[in-house]
Write a structure and sequence with these properties.
Blueprint lengths: L1 H7 L25 H6 L23 H5 L9 H112 L1
Length: about 190
Amino acid sequence: MALFDKKDKKPELPIPPAYNPNMMSSQPMSAPNPNNFSSMNMNEQVSNTPANPFDKLPKMDIGNNLATLPAENKLNDKDHTELMTEDIEKITESIISEKWDKINTELKNMTEWKNELSKQLDSYKKKVEDLDNKLSQTQSAMIGKVDEYNKSIGDVNVEIQAMGKVFEKLIPEFTNNVKELSEIVKKHK
């Protein structure tokens, strides 16, 4: 259960100092020395630190620095607004121009792609029409051959029936002739 107890204990985080723009240092801040960290116990809370670390920094009077600004920076508000408006217009125009060029390029690419697809689609339509025509021609040829075979079979059937009728008439006469011949042969013997 000792593992679960460690989760309940959360270390207190240090509170960052409030930012105060009036406190400016003329000296560069030095990096902390790593040797100092080894002597510090991280579990102890540092109580002797001031609430605001910037309190130790020397205070500067920035009022004198404002008076030394060049006269060029003292522009009229109207002139400053006009310059900002012109800059904004130029930036806006350049952004719009850039976007417009991209859109035109993409539209040209899409138009070329559409034209290529149209050509391919027309090619496929022509191929399908050619196949349809060939299929129709083949079907017509097959129907013509079937009709021709049907007519030929009909003609053969008619001829067979005609031969049957001829044989019906010839067979009785043939049998009579055979009988007569056999009688003649018997008499001559």
